[in-house]
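[09:14] KT: can someone run the structure on this one? pasting the chain below
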Amino acid sequence: AAFAHPGPSLVELITDPKALSIPPKISGSQVLGFATAMSKVVLNRGAGEAVSMARSNLRNIPRR
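[09:31] RB: done, structure tokens below
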């Protein structure tokens, strides 16, 4: 109903802050940037945080 309304409206959303947004095509520089970011996560916050992020994103991958 809020999106069909012609005027301003307020929409409340709940999102997963660890969710990964994946574009349809990935470049080599994006892969390098992701690897660098994950390395920093492991070094600064530990492997447990990286595993938690991976679990959060695996549930969003379509299964056949």
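[09:33] KT: thanks! The helical segments are 28-45, 47-58.
[09:34] RB: yep, looked fine to me
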